[in-house]
Specification:
The chain is an alpha/beta fold. The protein has 22 helices and nine strands. Bound molecules: iron/sulfur cluster (SF4) (2 copies).
């Protein structure tokens, strides 16, 4: 049997008896998936954390071995194990590289709940944050109040990065439930707002409505939709109530569009072929002959979010969309295979690794000489934007060339 350097003597010790029960009953699929890993190591050089630490325990192969060991009760679920799993960005670059198509994320998801149960401390803060994400309207109200009050300077050190990520002076979020098509109607779509994005990425949401309406699509914005549940799943919490609410909110709408690829990934397994990244939809949409697109002189470098590239496999669509702009030179940002480090709440929980990855990304941003960096995920945009990069969603760049003035 492969032994990982972290494996301890054959002592099984779960602090919480509930974990032990969950471990025995729910791991069979994950163990089966982990067993499909043939330890070839072809994923290693694609893993950002392995490239940084050069430790097998911080590689996909190492983590799969560790998780399998814990699930089979061969090694303990202890602090050292958690440290290596927590350092994973869940960027899924390993899945993309794996010739055997091992579903790494499925194995990781099976470990989330036991890991979170084993952790001590900060449970209250985590629970309060997740509750707030489940109530996006309240989150938005609190966020706006916070921005007005200037309370940012009183935040404790660990939460300071959150304040720098919050953009100021954005338009309000779309409050109407229907935005009708202009001219002859070509179709109807739903728009997913997200939770944090309705506070931090209203520019993209408004730009999406602008472009869709002008092409001839009526946009439905169900106001009772909620968070996609990605962070809940990340922290081993039950995201099902959120999924159910979103499915109900969008019932009767055949095509739902997401402007943030990480949320689109999270919802895609539940919306079964009904949810699309907006760049993909726009590339395949009709009505472009109606659009007058003014030229853009300069270079746009495209940052490919891991969720769009490794999971949705839709990294080509933003290029195709931006190439509709006359004069624009659309190029990939060098180093697109590596995560920027934002990864949901990763930048807060693993600031050292996240900032090291962001350093690499910012080096490429400077090297690109681009006027604008385009990205389809709000988390990446906020993280890179906090370091001063001019980052916009491809839809915003396009909308601005078609008369969108915000
Ligand atoms: S998800 Fe990303 S960080 Fe995690 S093991 Fe795979 S490649 Fe490495
Ligand atoms: S590439 Fe796939 S099979 Fe090979 S070590 Fe990585 S996860 Fe395992």
């Amino acid at each position: 049997m492969t032994r990982d350097p972290l494996s301890a003597p054959q002592v099984i010790y779960y602090h919480d008896p509930e974990i032990a029960v969950a471990m025995h009953s729910s791991f069979s699929n994950a163990i089966h998936e982990a067993d499909r890993c043939v330890s070839c190591g072809l994923c290693l050089q694609n893993c950002p954390t392995y490239r940084k630490t050069l430790s097998e325990a911080d590689s996909p192969r190492g983590r799969i071995n560790l998780m399998r060991g814990v699930m089979k009760e061969e090694i303990p679920l202890n602090a050292r194990f958690i440290e290596h799993i927590d350092l994973c960005l869940d960027c899924r670059a390993c899945e993309k590289a794996c010739p055997n198509h091992v579903a790494y994320d499925a194995i990781l998801r099976a470990m989330r709940k036991p890991i979170e149960k084993e952790k001590k401390g900060r449970r209250l803060l985590k629970r309060a944050s997740l509750n707030l994400l489940s109530r996006p309207k309240m989150l938005e109200r609190i966020g706006r109040l916070y921005l007005k009050s200037g309370m940012g300077r009183f935040l404790p050190g660990k939460l300071k990065p959150l304040d720098t990520l919050l953009p100021r002076g954005l338009p309000g979020f779309p409050e109407k439930t229907v935005y009708p098509a202009q001219g002859e109607a070509l179709g109807e779509v739903g728009l997913f707002l997200g939770c944090v994005a309705r506070l931090t990425d209203t520019l993209t949401l408004n730009a999406a409505i602008h472009v869709l309406n002008r092409l001839g699509y009526t946009v439905h914005v169900p106001q009772d939709q909620t968070c996609c549940g990605a962070l809940h799943a990340r922290f081993g919490e039950n995201a099902e109530p959120l999924v159910t609410r979103n499915l109900e909110a969008f019932s009767g709408i055949d095509v739902v569009l997401g402007t943030s690829s990480a949320c689109t990934v999270e919802l895609s397994s539940f919306f079964q072929g009904r949810i699309f990244d907006i760049s993909r939809f726009l590339c395949e949409a009709k009505g472009w002959e109606r659009m007058e697109i003014s030229p853009f002189e300069g270079k746009i470098a495209v940052h490919e979010p891991c969720s769009l590239r490794n999971v949705l496999k839709g990294q080509d669509y933003p290029y195709r969309l931006l190439e509709r702009i006359p004069g624009a030179s659309v190029v990939p940002l060098e180093g697109n295979g590596q995560c920027c480090g934002s990864a949901g709440s990763y930048f807060l929980t693993q600031p050292e690794m996240a900032n090291s990855l962001l350093d690499d990304k910012m080096e490429m941003v400077c090297k690109s000489g681009a006027r604008i960096i385009a990205t389809s995920n709000v988390g990446c945009a906020m993280f890179m934007g906090a370091r001063g990069a001019g980052v916009l969603h491809p839809v915003v760049i396009l909308a601005r060339q078609t008369g969108f003035v915000k």
